[in-house]
Amino acid sequence: MSYSDFGFIEYLRSILAIATFFLIFLLFTPIILFLLFISFGKASNFVVEKIAPIMVHPVMWVSGISFNVKMHTDELASPAVFIINHSSTLDVLTLLALGLPKVRFVAKWEFQYNPIFLILGRLTGQIFIKRGKTEKAIQTLKKTHRRIKRDELSVMMAPEGSRKHPGIIGPFKKGPFRMAMDLDYPIVPIYFEGNRDLSKGGTMITKSGEVTAHIHEAIDISDWTVDNLPDHIKEVRNRYLNWAGVEEDDVRPIS
């Protein structure tokens, strides 16, 4: 997809959506800060589960995007390590729109360069990691284990690490899977269908259309070990390739 694929109306709607996004954030930030202050931080789950979806749905409406959630399981496992395919800037909106219970997001360190994201992210307990430094990222994740386990929180991660990767589904890093093993949490795969088709990826310029979050059955990891981990990661990635309609390949997991 190139910028020439977007028409005047799509550029206009996208610009209006971006303005709507920042306006809503500015309006809701004082409300969220007040709720967190009077609750001594205990309103974090309410913010993520209830307020975040309210904030992003108008942005998608302005963009002409219809967002749907399709459950492929009878029960949503919680707490769990939720994983997603990541290839579009739309992923940020669809993640927030899900409103999953007691979830915390693992995001790139650079998000904190925006003061609003820094304040809200820190106060609601989101996890920021330096993706280019594997050891640092692992240390950060390990430090959060105690808090996550104590508060029975779920974690949302993108195994591809970044939306900039080769192919439709990029190589999977080990971090999310090792974290699931350390926490003794099941892994819940979520496949975003349509995000990549509507957005080029590097900007918030999008086409109008439909996106669907497919929430699949939890994966039991009770028999996973360090030795068989690469095989299990490959199997999970092959599921995503299948959902994306891509042939299985031999791309190996990366650290």
Automatic annotation (TrEMBL):
Keywords: Acyltransferase, Membrane, Transferase, Transmembrane, Transmembrane helix. InterPro entries: Plipid/glycerol_acylTrfase. SUPFAM superfamilies: Glycerol-3-phosphate (1)-acyltransferase (SSF69593). It comes from the Bacteria. One of its GO terms (biological process) is phosphatidic acid biosynthetic process. Pfam families: Acyltransferase. One of its GO terms (molecular function) is 1-acylglycerol-3-phosphate O-acyltransferase activity. Pathway: Lipid metabolism. Residues 80-195 form the Phospholipid/glycerol acyltransferase domain. The chain crosses the membrane at residues 12-39. The keyword Cell inner membrane does not apply. PANTHER family: 1-ACYL-SN-GLYCEROL-3-PHOSPHATE ACYLTRANSFERASE (PTHR10434:SF11). This is 1-acyl-sn-glycerol-3-phosphate acyltransferase. It comes from Fodinibius salipaludis.
